[in-house]
Design goal:
Order of helices and strands: HEEEHEEEHEHEEHEHEHHEEEEHHHE
Strand content: 25-35%
Strand order of the largest sheet: 9-8-10-11-7-12-15
Number of strands: 16
Oligomer: single chain
Helix content: 25-40%
Length: 377
């Protein structure tokens, strides 16, 4: 393929990904084909299939766009490229057949970072806003990769981004740049770690600290210390529920009395796809929610406005507020009753026609859906 046509084709693939609201683009070499897939609303979709002979050309072009070493094919590389004012993080990895390349679209559209756009209930929105106004304490957002934790944190930070508050963040990488917030990126090659940046930030007269992710004891200990010494700290943790966040910090070595005195709020969340409003259809069967009988639900169909009957995503949340009673349970190592609000919130979205029962099952898994939460009838 002529070089000019190759450049045009790659640019068109990337622009098409932006148009389809893709979060990731996968370029995958196989024995006889070069596959391109896109993750749209959390689900990988097949998009293009090129002859395998084009693999090296496409990989080289993407590396040039990201200013990577095109001759290096044996080691992973990371970088960033810009197209249509959107930043894309690039990651290359040697695999059987060549190099796999994944582009992550960095959603830097700051105007979208609104608490009201997260999909929180009125009660949860009020509670989150109230905790964000606290002078000190730790707010944790938990969930698996791709569950929207970062957007929740950024939305919270933007809501309190005022001239009288010094807000600092340490991230790996910086996903969204927000004017008025001092954002620092981890650089492991230069020896700049989460813990080192956090220590430096504590000497920068901060009011609010955002730690992109708590990964180890050192980072957790500094975050807890900051939350106890007059700073509001926001961070994320990879756990499946609010209760597991406390267990995970325990496993890292954080003492229960420190957790009890610093934790304010733990939020667990997931993202589910929304049914397309143009083509969703009412199911013939009914669903029973707890003691409420025969609720109508809807199914995806698929049309020109959506991908497979879905368009966009919405969050479902579980809040654990650290009340004096829960503080005592943490200190005394007594089990905390799980909130189990995520399945309930998911079923509410099914009941209101926002999403489908199949989508809740896909995201939460069969083991998380209790017969008392959601039943077909």
């Amino acid at each position: 393929m002529p070089n000019g046509q190759l450049i045009e084709n790659i640019d068109q693939i990337l622009l098409d990904a932006l148009l389809k609201r893709a979060s990731d683009i996968h370029f995958e070499p196989y024995k006889t084909s070069y596959r391109v897939r896109m993750r749209i609303d959390g689900v990988l979709q097949m998009m293009f299939n090129f002859p395998i002979e084009m693999a090296k050309q496409i990989a080289a072009r993407l590396k040039i766009m990201a200013k990577l070493d095109i001759a290096e094919q044996r080691l992973p590389q990371d970088g960033q490229l810009i197209i249509n004012n959107y930043a894309m993080r690039i990651s290359t990895l040697p695999v059987v057949g060549g190099e796999k390349i994944v582009l992550r679209v960095m959603d830097n559209q700051e105007q979208q970072l609104l608490l009201t756009a997260l999909g929180l209930s009125k009660a949860d929105l009020s509670l989150f806003s109230q905790c964000l106004q606290a002078p000190q304490g730790l707010i944790l957002v938990t969930g698996p990769t791709g569950s929207g934790k970062s957007v929740t944190l950024y939305s919270g930070l933007k809501s309190i981004n005022q001239i009288d508050r010094n807000i600092c963040s340490v991230e790996d990488p910086i996903e969204i740049t927000v004017a008025g917030i001092n954002q620092t990126q981890v650089n492991l090659k230069a020896g700049l770690t989460f813990a080192q940046i956090l220590r430096a930030l504590l000497r920068q007269d901060p009011d609010v600290l955002m730690v992109g992710e708590i990964r180890d004891y050192e980072t957790a200990a500094i975050a807890i210390q900051a939350a106890q010494t007059g700073h509001l700290v926001l961070s994320t943790l990879h756990t499946n529920s609010t209760i597991e966040a406390i267990t995970r910090l325990n496993q890292m070595g954080i003492a229960n009395y420190l957790l009890a005195s610093s934790l304010q709020l733990v939020i667990a969340q997931r993202l589910v796809r929304k049914l397309c409003k143009h083509c969703k259809r009412q199911a013939e069967d009914k669903i029973t929610f707890n003691d409420l009988q025969n609720y109508t639900h809807f199914l995806p169909t698929g049309c020109q406005h959506c991908i497979g009957g879905y368009h966009g995503r919405v969050g479902i949340y579980e809040f654990l507020v650290i009340t004096p009673e829960i503080q005592q349970q943490i200190v005394n190592q007594r089990p905390i009753t799980p909130q189990q609000m995520i399945p309930t919130a998911g079923c509410e979205l099914v009941k209101s026609g926002v999403t489908s029962f199949a989508e809740i099952e896909r995201v939460l898994g069969f083991t998380n859906l209790n017969s008392s939460d959601c039943l077909r009838s």
